[in-house]
Amino acid sequence: GTVISFKVLGGTEEAKQFVKELKFFTCGLSIGGVESLIQIPRLMTHKSLPPAKLDADDITENLIRMSLGIEDIEDLLEDVDQALSCLLYTSDAADDLLCVDLGGRRIIKKK
Predict the structure, then answer these.
(1) For every one of its 111 residues, what pLDDT tens digit does the chain have, with 9 covering 90 and above?
(2) Which of 14, 16, 58, 100 is 20 to 30 A (C-alpha) from 87?
Protein backbone atom coordinates (compact mmCIF):
# COMPACT_ATOMS: atom_id res chain seq x y z
CA GLY A 1 0.00 0.00 0.00
CA THR A 2 0.83 3.65 -0.07
CA VAL A 3 1.89 5.72 2.92
CA ILE A 4 0.93 9.39 2.92
CA SER A 5 1.47 12.17 5.42
CA PHE A 6 -0.47 15.39 5.78
CA LYS A 7 -1.35 17.98 8.39
CA VAL A 8 -4.83 18.79 9.55
CA LEU A 9 -5.59 22.37 10.50
CA GLY A 10 -5.19 22.97 14.19
CA GLY A 11 -3.15 21.00 16.68
CA THR A 12 -3.21 17.86 18.76
CA GLU A 13 -6.93 17.92 19.53
CA GLU A 14 -7.89 18.30 15.86
CA ALA A 15 -5.53 15.46 14.87
CA LYS A 16 -7.04 13.21 17.55
CA GLN A 17 -10.57 14.15 16.48
CA PHE A 18 -9.81 13.34 12.82
CA VAL A 19 -8.41 9.91 13.74
CA LYS A 20 -11.33 9.22 16.07
CA GLU A 21 -13.88 9.93 13.32
CA LEU A 22 -12.38 7.40 10.87
CA LYS A 23 -14.14 4.06 10.52
CA PHE A 24 -11.95 2.14 8.03
CA PHE A 25 -8.55 3.13 9.44
CA THR A 26 -7.14 1.49 12.55
CA CYS A 27 -4.77 3.41 14.78
CA GLY A 28 -1.43 1.61 14.89
CA LEU A 29 2.28 2.08 15.50
CA SER A 30 3.36 -0.01 12.53
CA ILE A 31 2.00 1.14 9.19
CA GLY A 32 2.95 -1.65 6.85
CA GLY A 33 0.10 -4.18 6.88
CA VAL A 34 -2.66 -4.94 4.39
CA GLU A 35 -5.28 -3.02 6.36
CA SER A 36 -5.52 0.77 6.32
CA LEU A 37 -3.74 2.19 9.35
CA ILE A 38 -3.28 5.66 10.76
CA GLN A 39 -1.07 7.34 13.32
CA ILE A 40 -0.18 10.68 14.82
CA PRO A 41 3.64 10.36 14.86
CA ARG A 42 4.26 13.00 17.54
CA LEU A 43 2.01 11.13 19.97
CA MET A 44 3.00 7.63 18.93
CA THR A 45 6.11 6.54 17.01
CA HIS A 46 8.15 9.68 17.73
CA LYS A 47 6.86 10.35 21.26
CA SER A 48 10.21 9.69 22.92
CA LEU A 49 12.10 12.33 20.90
CA PRO A 50 12.80 15.72 22.47
CA PRO A 51 10.45 18.53 21.36
CA ALA A 52 13.34 20.44 19.73
CA LYS A 53 14.15 17.42 17.52
CA LEU A 54 10.47 16.96 16.61
CA ASP A 55 10.17 20.63 15.68
CA ALA A 56 13.41 20.54 13.66
CA ASP A 57 12.12 17.54 11.70
CA ASP A 58 8.69 19.15 11.20
CA ILE A 59 6.93 16.39 13.13
CA THR A 60 4.13 18.62 14.29
CA GLU A 61 1.18 17.97 16.60
CA ASN A 62 -1.18 17.94 13.61
CA LEU A 63 0.84 15.60 11.37
CA ILE A 64 -1.09 12.50 10.31
CA ARG A 65 0.46 9.44 8.68
CA MET A 66 -1.80 7.00 6.81
CA SER A 67 -1.05 3.64 5.29
CA LEU A 68 -3.58 2.69 2.63
CA GLY A 69 -4.56 -0.96 2.72
CA ILE A 70 -6.48 -3.26 0.41
CA GLU A 71 -9.93 -1.94 1.26
CA ASP A 72 -12.04 -0.47 -1.54
CA ILE A 73 -10.68 2.99 -2.42
CA GLU A 74 -14.20 4.45 -2.50
CA ASP A 75 -14.76 3.32 1.10
CA LEU A 76 -11.49 4.95 2.15
CA LEU A 77 -12.29 8.18 0.30
CA GLU A 78 -15.73 8.38 1.88
CA ASP A 79 -14.22 7.70 5.29
CA VAL A 80 -11.64 10.47 4.98
CA ASP A 81 -14.31 12.79 3.58
CA GLN A 82 -16.66 12.27 6.52
CA ALA A 83 -13.83 12.62 9.05
CA LEU A 84 -12.73 15.91 7.47
CA SER A 85 -16.34 17.11 7.54
CA CYS A 86 -16.55 16.37 11.26
CA LEU A 87 -13.26 18.19 11.81
CA LEU A 88 -14.35 21.22 9.82
CA TYR A 89 -17.40 21.73 11.98
CA THR A 90 -15.74 21.11 15.33
CA SER A 91 -12.52 23.10 14.88
CA ASP A 92 -11.94 26.83 15.32
CA ALA A 93 -8.89 26.43 13.07
CA ALA A 94 -10.94 25.44 10.02
CA ASP A 95 -11.05 28.78 8.22
CA ASP A 96 -8.94 27.51 5.33
CA LEU A 97 -9.12 24.63 2.89
CA LEU A 98 -8.45 21.10 4.05
CA CYS A 99 -6.97 18.95 1.31
CA VAL A 100 -5.97 15.30 1.35
CA ASP A 101 -4.57 13.46 -1.66
CA LEU A 102 -5.60 9.84 -1.21
CA GLY A 103 -4.52 7.34 -3.81
CA GLY A 104 -4.45 9.94 -6.58
CA ARG A 105 -7.91 11.30 -5.64
CA ARG A 106 -8.00 14.64 -3.91
CA ILE A 107 -10.51 15.51 -1.21
CA ILE A 108 -10.93 19.23 -0.62
CA LYS A 109 -13.15 20.68 2.08
CA LYS A 110 -13.91 24.27 2.93
CA LYS A 111 -15.98 25.37 5.89
Answers:
(1) 688 888 887 889 989 999 999 999 998 877 767 899 999 998 887 888 999 998 898 888 889 998 989 999 899 989 988 888 777 655 454 455 555 555 555 555 554
(2) 58
